[in-house]
Each structure stands twice: as C-alpha cells, then as structure tokens.
Amino acid sequence: TVSYPTADDATDELAETTTLTIGTGSGTGTIIDTDLPPVISITASGDATEGAGDAIVFSIDQTGLSDRATTVIVTLNLTDAEAADIASIVLTNADGTTQTLTVAQATAGVTVSIPAGTELADMPSFSITPTQDAIYEISETIGMSLS
Questions:
Q1: What is the rounded CA–CA span in Å between residue 94 and residue 111?
Q2: Is the pLDDT of residue 121 over 70?
Q3: Helices (H), the chain
Q4: How does pLDDT run across 78-100, given as a tens digit for each residue?
Q5: Residue 40: CB partners within 8 Å, gap ≥ 6?
C-alpha cells in the first residue's frame, strides 16, 4: 500500500487524477475538491451627473478563488434611461486593458473573464459616463446584471 497526503485549501479546483506506476503495475486515484465555486457580484459606485465628467463605476467582485478562469455575462439595464443618455462605456479588464463598448453591445451582454487565481484588486469594472445635453430630465436609473 502506498499513500500520500492531499492538501485542503480554499481554491475551487477541478478533480485531479494521479497515477502511481511501479514496474508493470499501476494504480490511479482521483482527488475530489470540496471547495465551493466562487461567487460573483457587481456593485455600483453611486451617481454621476451630466456635464460633471464623472462616471458610475460598476465593479465586479469574486468571493473565493478558482484555479481556472471564471466567466460571467454582464448586461447593461437602461431601466428608465435611454441609449442617448450614455456618452461612453469603458470596460477595464482584469489585466488592466480597456475596451470601449457601445450601448447596443452592453445591453446585449458582454462576456467578462476573471483569470484563475485573481484577487479582488484585479477585478474587471465598467465605467459609464452620462451624456451632457440641453434636455431637462428627472434623474434616471441604469443598472448592470450578471448571468
């Protein structure tokens, strides 16, 4: 009999198979991970005012680590706003690269990837800047959802 210890950690992992071969004989075992998969959430920074140059930042958070990339679809919900109310949408990926999105792309849903082993500080985010216009409007709401 040959045995070896396994380490319990907090990282979500796929099952891992190991084979030990001695001479012409071999034995195979599988290590089953018992950690829960990461939980993904999104939060907004607050309000943005037309013409003030500020943006609403929607930050994606992941609770729990994974040894593989986590993907999620993020969708812009205009609620009572219109596409013309959005001046720009910029996605900052986990690696720091940025991508400018159209309202049509964002409302259709954008696939975002969180690389394996990513910590909270390296999470993707969306910055949405409102359009400055001469139309008097009441405050309007936008949101983002995950699926």
A1: 13
A2: no
A3: 103-108
A4: 989 999 999 999 999 999 999 99
A5: 60, 61, 62, 70, 72, 114, 146
- At residue 29, what is the residue type? G
- What top-level class would CATH report for the domain 39-146? mainly beta
User: Beta 56-63 vs 125-130: how paired, if at all?
Assistant: antiparallel
Q: What share of the chain is helix, strand, coil (3-state, %, to 5)?
A: 10, 45, 45
- Which pLDDT belongs to residue 36? 81
Cβ proximity of 138 and 79 under 8 Å: no
Q: How much is the pLDDT for 15?
A: 82
Residue type, 146: L
102 vs 118: which has the higher pLDDT: 102
**What proportion of the chain, given as a percentage, has pLDDT over 90?**
52
CA-wise closest residue to 106 among 85, 77, 129, 142? 77
Q: How far apart are CA 36 and CA 63, in angstroms?
A: 10
> Where do the domains of the chain lie?
39-146
CB atoms within 10 A of CB 55: 17
